[in-house]
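Weekly structure sync, notes
Attendees: PL (lead), two postdocs, one rotation student
Agenda item 3: pending single-chain targets
PL asked that the sequence for the first pending target be pasted directly into the notes so everyone works from the same version. It is reproduced below exactly as submitted, 266 residues in total.
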Amino acid sequence: MPKNSNKKSRNIAIGAGVAVAALLLGVASYTATKPEDSGNGTVKEEAAGAAPSAGAQDGVYPELEKLARRDAGDPLARGRADAPVVMVEYADFKCGFCGKFARDTEPGLVKKYVDEGTLRIEWRNFPIFGKDSERAARGAWAAGRQDRFWQFHEAAYAEGSKEKGFGDGRLKEIARDAGVKDVDRFMKDADSDAAGTAVRKDQEEAYGLGAASTPSFLINGRPVSGAQPDEVFHQAIETAAKSAKPQKPQKPQKSGEPAGPKGGSE
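Predicted structure, written out during the meeting:
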């Protein structure tokens, strides 16, 4: 059977298995940072947070847990590839609530859970706010090619950053702030077909789950929607850690890309 057919069959199987979870994630996340039509063909964020979804409180879905890639060479991930808990984050650099999570909550999770080996965070580019979002996502991927994704992530989510936009000049500025050594290569990578393919893969995964807004999370198969209070994430991570089974990291994917940090926190 052709490879494309195998991939399509796998996607259909996953889609059927997570239908209920997708509804939970989609409905809950829609009230968090939903894209709204502003009347001129663009979307804007709704200034509201979501209450924890029913899935975040009660439901753990094995099909969703399988979406953790655990690729030891993934530069868009931080933490041990065999950590007992994986938090998959679907986010957009133009999303204000994503920035709030990145500045106010994520550093604490890294210090408390990633650094001591309990948690791994896997980023998924989920651009939903138009061309600027797409450019930022491509730039983030390109920064990862030079092992500077998390530094790019920090600079792009700095207070006031998204208001400056993500045009070419701004992307270069963020790349320099992030310590990207070869900015010309960075810009070529960001504009490449490979960048577009990688971003679309993450985006389609999120849409397939029914995610309607950013940020959306999966914590060992448990959906969590929106920039929730710290304790929501702490509880979900600690609950997942108690019931986690031993994991084996996946071998780095052979895509011609630099391997990136081997499960480090930076």
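Discussion points:
- The beta strands are 35-37, 43-45, 77-78, 85-91, 119-125, 216-219, 222-225.
- Confidence is low (pLDDT under 50) at residues 1-20, 27-57, 255-266.
Action: rotation student to compare against the earlier draft before next sync.
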